[in-house]
Design brief:
Rossmann fold, seven-stranded parallel beta sheet, binds NADP nicotinamide-adenine-dinucleotide phosphate, alpha/beta, 9 helices, 7 strands
């Protein structure tokens, strides 16, 4: 690791990760612990692991879709953010499989609150500190954000929002010295698919990635101040093709693929 890269990571004093309790968020924690030894790491989610190793982050219990929880969190933010340069990772998110509005409308509205509203809320609240102290933002979007995704229509649309919003922010906040990265993983072995209502093993080992591979791609891209990283070469090829297709054709093709995955 070059000196410039080392000093990039060492400068962070506060790291806030939403959804550090499992999957991709959990995989960020040990890597950041290693690279940012002086930083406080806060994990924001509804639950936190209680078994096994000692938690490597300070747990903050919050449902990011609950206005009362957000109000409580807001009171706590000055204490969290005032410690120095901030790295904010908006990672919490979920999807639901099935034609809209399965399983129910409430689920889709909740998904929009978590996948879209919560990152905008957190970035908005963090911005005064980011501007004052410097810092960086990673928003976890998805390869699902590159084309319409029938059977995951709301999910794909939330990730398209995050992808485009993050790339716009990358441009808007450059003048303040704030890096913004849209991280787009493809299928990754986590709890995501079970929570989304898929049955059985959805992602073949040959195609999927591990959370650690996704985190490595994200950290390299942030070091290089990229605005976007699609994690994994197979996913890169897939999005290069799908984003060139006419929208209607891309929709029809992803409908064919996504109709099959549950079987
Ligand atoms: N796995 C994939 O194939 C894949 C691909 C592309 C993008 N992604 C994205 O990657 C991100 C992480 O997902 P993952 O794959 O690591 O799945 P995961 O293991 O299910 O993790 C989801 C995380 O979100 C948190 N969360 C859920 N509801 C929440 C709420 N209301 N308030 C606060 N936190 C909440 C969960 O914690 P609690 O349940 O404890 O609250 C958990 O830590 C998501 O944004 C997902 O869309 C995943």
């Amino acid at each position: 690791m070059s000196l410039t890269v080392m000093s990039f990571w060492k400068k962070f004093r506060t790291i806030v990760i939403t959804g550090a309790s499992s999957g991709i968020g959990a995989a960020f924690v040990p890597k950041l612990r290693e690279k940012c030894p002086d930083a406080h790491i806060y994990g924001l989610s509804r639950s936190h692991p209680t078994e096994g190793e000692k938690l490597l982050y300070d747990p903050i219990s919050v449902d990011l879709t609950n206005p009362a929880d957000l109000e409580r969190l807001e009171q706590d933010l000055p204490r969290i953010f005032a410690q120095g340069p901030v790295l904010l990772i908006n990672n919490s998110g979920f999807g639901s499989y099935g034609p809209f509005p399965q399983p129910d409308l409430e689920n889709h509205l909740n998904m929009m609150d978590l996948n879209v509203k919560a990152p905008v809320w957190l970035v908005g609240r963090a911005l005064p500190w980011l501007r004052r102290e410097g810092g960086a933002i990673i928003n976890v979007a998805s390869t699902a954000g590159f084309q319409p995704t029938p059977f995951l229509s709301t999910y794909g649309a939330t990730k398209a929002f995050l992808l485009h919003w993050s790339m716009g922010l990358h441009h808007d906040l450059k003048k303040d010295g704030i890096r913004v990265l849209a991280l787009c993983p493809g299928p990754t072995a986590t709890d995501f698919f079970r929570r989304a209502g898929f049955e059985g093993k959805v992602v073949p080992d040959a195609f999927g990635q591990t959370s650690e591979q996704v985190v490595q791609a994200a950290m390299r891209a942030l070091e290089k101040n990229r605005s976007l990283v699609v994690s994994g070469w197979k996913n890169k090829i897939l999005v290069a093709v799908s984003s060139k297709l006419p929208k209607a054709l891309g929709t029809a093709l992803s409908a064919r693929v996504l109709a099959k995955v549950r079987q």
